Amino acid sequence: MKDTDSRREFLKTSAKAVAAAVAFGGFGTSLFASNLKAVNTSSKGENMSTLTPQAKANLEKFFGTSKLAQEDLEFFTNYANFAFDEVFAHSQLEEKERLLLILAALVAIPAKEEFETMLKAALNVKVSPIAIKEVIYQATPYVGMGKVADILSLTNKVFKQRGIKLPLAKQGRTTKENRYEKGLQAQVEIFGEGMRSASDKAANEKKHIIEFLSSNCFGDYYTRGGLELKFRELITFVYLISMGGAEPQVKAHIQGNLNMGNDRAKLIAVVTALIPYIGYPRSLNALSAIDEIS
């Protein structure tokens, strides 16, 4: 009997923990009031339970409502004011670009529930389904299929719910015979002519990996349609800073972005936009790398 009671108590505690996690991660369902009594977020004075006009406008644009649920009202209002007002004011990015960059970060973390919420927001403001899929596909050589597969499955579910016909139009631009050369050319455009000799300089036991980078990472992904090369290099920067632990690659792709015309101000704007999603430690690491390279 004691074992049974203990198990029941454990399950109750676990259920509460899961509910708390969903309340934070399930931004779209728990942030906003649904069947709960809607909360009036206006008051005579500014306080932690008052949405700013800009935050309110952005919430309504992206999610169709700014009526917040009651359980964590102060927390969510404070978060919304920061993420959808202050951060927007200090990161001058085009609206659809911002959402694609956020989605790239959420793939890399990975954060499935928040990805679903921001995916729906992106579709609400007419972000191209092809562009969304390309952001997911290109994450594969950086974060691995283990993360991408779950996000891709989730995305297909949402697309079907929205009546988006699958599969989308093909975006591949290479063949088995030319993917290496096309990928190498993309590397040269981003990093310079020195990339042409990278394979020759590699030790024999590592040469195949250098060739993989050209044919698979760049040939299979960077050459695809749906996104411009300049933006593909920018989302690679986002993957790397969002997952953490890839500082040498972050620095290399900062230089690649600078070469492509994504300047220091642009990179700092991107980091600023991602702070609510990736947190301060990884954001500060990214800023340190930008300082070092630029």
Automatic annotation (TrEMBL):
The record's section on InterPro entries has: 4CMD/NDH-1_regulator, AhpD-like, CMD-like, TAT_signal, TAT_signal_bac_arc
- State the UniProt keywords alphabetically: Molybdenum
Q: Name one GO molecular function term.
A: peroxiredoxin activity
A Pfam family per the record: CMD
tRNA-binding among keywords: no
Using the record's annotation, list all stretches that form the Carboxymuconolactone decarboxylase-like domain: 74-155, 212-292
- Keyword Oxidoreductase appears in the UniProt entry: no
- The entry's protein name is Carboxymuconolactone decarboxylase family protein
User: Which species?
Assistant: Campylobacter avium LMG 24591
Tell me the classification of the organism that encodes this protein: Bacteria, Pseudomonadati, Campylobacterota, Epsilonproteobacteria, Campylobacterales
